[in-house]
Amino acid sequence: MKVGDEVAVYEFLAEIEAVEMLLLVDETTRDIAAKDVPAARRTLSAFLKRYHEPAADSQKRLSRYLTSMLSLCNRSKDEAETHLERAKSLDSAGKKSEALREYQEILSDIPKSNYCG
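Above: the chain sequence. Below: its structure as tokens.
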């Protein structure tokens, strides 16, 4: 990258990050709509680690929105893990119908909306 390019990137950093944030909203919304919350969670986590603070005040709301999406995806993961542990415990205790209900609960908890639940 040339020095002039580096200056341009620095000068337009806020705009570049805003575009990346909007693309991220689109990508993760599509993942969630496709019931792939783990993919949305991984993508959001990676982005928010890289850009933990927005470059401009005008991006704070969008950054909070992304953080909220990640929080909801994490909650969905935690709830699924709880149901999975219960299902395994019930299954090992020979309570097949109760275990099946827990497995079904995992599937029913998968978000059907575009907002992780």
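The longest helix spans residues 60-92.
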